[in-house]
Amino acid sequence: MNTLFQIEFRKMLKRKAFWVALALFGGFLTLIYWNMFARGGGVAIEVNKMKLTLNSSQWWGFMFGFPGINVVAIAAFFVPITVVMLAASEFTFKTARQNVIDGLTRGQFLLAKVVSVLFVALAYFLVVMALGLYFGYVRADATQLVNGFIRTQELQMLGAYFLMLVGYGLLALLFSLMARSSGAAIGLFFFYTIMVEQMLSQLFRLSEATKWLADAIVYAPGPIFKDIIKPDRYDNAGIMSMLGQMGRSMNGGAEPLATNTVLACALGYVVLLSAASYLLVKRTDL
Q: Does the pTM of the predicted model rise above 0.85?
């Protein structure tokens, strides 16, 4: 088993596409953080045309879910593309079939792909952590760290962020196994997450007869993975005290799902997506 992990890890490190995608992600994130932070520390943000400055012990959650800070959107773009390039290439270069011929079971092959998803998620997570620690600690005023640099709330949000990365990665893996082509898999992923989950939801809300379908889409994988990292789930009191009624605009005035419900759904999707991928590998010809 350890050998399987080592092989998958080495394969990932040898792919130039992985390093290019990770570097682009880090570059975009650096620009966002650079613009977020005011001179001398603190985070400068703008909400409803009002400029606010947060101290470094408050900014962690805002980088995930606050309006105008697109860390989630960027990660939801780069992680699936990276997973697709790593997984779909196994079929493009016929290495998936060769691995099975050489003695690897279908279950072991899928496990290797799931492990690669975890490696990719960890890599992107570490980039966020490294840049966050630099901009939030090195550039911050030490007198602002009254509650400690990373509180329990931040640890919870960071854990939820890693879970989101894994979830998007597994969704991309499923489409890679279905399409067996990088271009087609990427197309399927964004068609589903944009056209099905987002645009159909808006269309369904135009009619009272189909509004229940729009409410049901809230429980789809994409919305759930995004929902688990809303900062007001973990530090609602702090956010509301800083923003007052503006804090409600983060949810668009809608009643949010319970945190335990969202986390249970997210973990359930991780299991379901892995199981669906296993059935797909088990029942189709590699």
A: no
